[in-house]
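re: ur question from yesterday

yeah so i grabbed the chain u mentioned. its 78 aa long if i counted rite. heres the sequnce exactly as i have it in my notes:
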Amino acid sequence: MAYVNWDIRREGRSWRGDEAMQRFELAPEKFEMTNGKLFWSDEDRLNTLGLLLENMGADAAVRMGDPEVWRAAVRDLD
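ran it thru and got these C-alpha cells back, copy pasting raw so excuse formatting
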C-alpha cells in the first residue's frame, strides 16, 4: 500500500490545486461490494476513508456511533 500523507483536520476541507487531482486518483475506480465489504481491498477502503475524513473532518466522524468506541480507540494508540 502506498503511503499517503493525510491532512485530516477537525473540520472538513476542500482540496485545492494539484492536491485535488492527486486525491481524486486515490479513489477506487468504481463503487462495489464484495462479501459484504465495500471495495475489493483494504487499501481501497482505507483510501476512501481518508478521502472522506479530509473532506468531512474528524468532528463529523466521531459523532457517528458510540463515543466510547472512539475513546477506546484513542486510548489504545499508545
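noticed a couple things. The beta strands are 33-34, 37-38. also The mean pLDDT is 93.
anyway ttyl
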